[in-house]
Amino acid sequence: MYRYDEFDRDFVDGRVAQFSDQVERRLSGELTEEQFRPLRLMNGLYLQLHAYMLRIAVPYGTLSSKQMRMLAHIAREYDRDYGHFTTRQNLQFNWPALKDMPEILRKLASVEMHALQTSGNCIRNVTADHFAGAAADEVADPRPYAEILRQWSSIHPEFSYLPRKFKLAVTGSPNDRAAIQLHDIGLEVKKNEAGELGFAVYVGGGQGRTPMIAHKVRDFLPEEDLLAYCEAIMRVYNLHGRRDNKYKARIKILVHETGATEITKQIEAEFAEVRKTELLQLPEEEIERITAYFAPPELPEKPARSGAFEEAKADSRDFAAFAQNNVAAHKVPGYGIVTISLKPIGGIPGDATADQMDVSADLAERFSQSELRVSHEQNLVLAHVALDDMPALYAELVSHGLATGNAGLVTDIIACPGLDYCALANARSINIAQDLSNRFGSPERQTEIGELKIKISGCINACGHHHVGHIGLLGVDKRGEEVYQITLGGSGAEDASVGALVGPGFTGDEVVDAVETVVDTYLKLREGPDETFLTAVRRLGQKPFKEALYGAA
Question: How, if at all, do strands 471-478 and 481-488 pair?
Fold first, then answer.
């Protein structure tokens, strides 16, 4: 894992001191809320429906056990004993008191964490594949490049006041687990025919009011040109992005209105100018220096097949389901990648109690090299677990309510906080997610349905990624009533697509039944159990689902 250098430490400590002074002036009345607002947002502090909310950055989704324990401590001492993991690999505390913010930020800084650039019109937390550095299908670990981008983008003097917020994601696998085509800039680490590392570059993806899939502007960008090319993209956006209308200010709108071909020409022209100075050319020694922080752990050699693992699967149906759904292939024989689901049946997606955070930290130390990951699907990950240790790990997860074996299934629901917390929301998300989870919660039902991603947003800002759900739910306010629109056929993976609206929305009392109707229609019409929901929707189109929901008329 990356460790702060002297610059990082001094920089974060300095920002904590500055914000502490600003908080003191707000509490004394020297600053009004209007004056304080831009200052707090620069430090990740929002004002939501009921209280302040602090959003903490987890760069490229990687946490140490020490950092997780500090998050548990803050949840216990300064919040209501829990935190909420988000689709941006961040953690949110929903109930901190303003007077405690300086101390919370000081404690975060003591474990090399902060809340900078988790809000505002700047480059936000750089995200990455949550299986990075461990996945069997990986070309190269994307986290060193994500860290390089983090250092380059932190308080960048030219890009701190962009037309709108800006998001980057990096994946090291052709199987995209980072949703790179739904980002302002998406990067896929790949190799060219000569075996050299570089990037496919995507620009102009995003969700919100106008969901769009990114355009590929470079099939292969040499490794050394990463920062120069990203700088060129940012300059084109900063120059031409709209500032007269925040709803049309994202780079996706600029790409759409200008045209992908013309935008690519402008980026390439700017890139040629940036490259002339050689100031942003990445030296090989710098890449090697950062990459060394992410050196794979020295894992003891194991047989590829584990007798203990196989016996446990044979002895326990629950463990077998967990192994099937929550254990992914590791690049090192004899090891696996474990997803710890934060989606217990009937639970709140992404929430973890302070005790569960502490347990996760303990398990990371015992079984996974003291390292954890946060996924954009609102789960936790232990990236380096020996297959021999899986039964013992599973027993610990069971005893702490963390053993739900539903990763990728119908109850592994993504949901934003919605109207229970968010001042921007039009409808609740949490209760709908809980009702759906309970409706589909039986192991037999989940196994029958197979892979199915439900994603729920409480407003058009799409923090729940509903646009790219296989089934997406968007909560809207219709004459004072919460109504949920259903979209089908979205995907945030390498086959990225935006779901299509089926028809009129359903009330909160109706929507769970409506989703079940959609699922039952799929089960009736699929071409065998191996045809997934997404494949079936793409084959069948909307018609049979519309007829099932609204009648043939």
Answer: antiparallel
Distance of CA 30 to the CA centre of its chain: 38
Return the DSSP state at 491.
B
| Confidence check: pLDDT of 553 > 80 | no
d(CA 544, CA 217): 37
- Mean pLDDT over residues 503-517, rounded? 98
Beta-carbon contacts of residue 289 (< 8 Å; ≥ 6 apart): none
Question: What's the confidence (pLDDT) of residue 552?
Answer: 74
The average confidence (pLDDT) of the chain is 97
State how far the Cα of 133 lies from the Cα of 383, in Å rounded to an integer: 8
What DSSP designation does 460 have? T
515 neighbors 486 (Cβ within 8 angstroms)? yes
Percent of the chain at pLDDT > 90 equals 99
Cα distance between residue 326 and residue 7, in whole Å: 39
193: CB partners within 8 A, 6+ apart: none
Q: What is the DSSP letter of 354?
A: H
Provide the terminal-to-terminal Cα distance of the chain, rounded to the nearest Å: 58
Q: What φ, ψ does residue 458 adopt, rounded to 5°?
A: -90, 0
pLDDT digits (tens, 9 = 90+) for 202-230: 999 999 999 999 999 999 999 999 999 99
| Cα 287 from Cα 427, distance rounded (Å) | 46
**In the structure encoding, which two tokens stand for residue 382, read together?**
């232990």
Rounded percentage of the chain residues whose pLDDT exceeds 70: 100
Q: Which helix (H) or strand (E) holds 139?
A: none
Task: List, in sequence order, every beta strand (DSSP E) within 172-244.
Answer: 185-191, 197-203, 215-222
Q: What is the dihedral of CA 290, 293, 294, 300, to 10 degrees?
A: 150
Order of strands across the sheet that contains 371-374: 62-64, 371-374, 380-386, 335-340, 327-329
Q: Which two tokens stand for residue 122?
A: 């700047």
Closest CA to 377 of 80, 48, 61, 1: 61
Contact 501, 486 (CB under 8 A): yes
Strand 481-488 to strand 506-507: parallel, antiparallel, or no bridges (unpaired)?
antiparallel
| Cα dihedral value 338, 340, 344, 349, nearest 10 | -120
The two structure tokens encoding residue 468: 């790219």
pLDDT tops 70 at residue 462:
yes
pTM of the model: 0.97
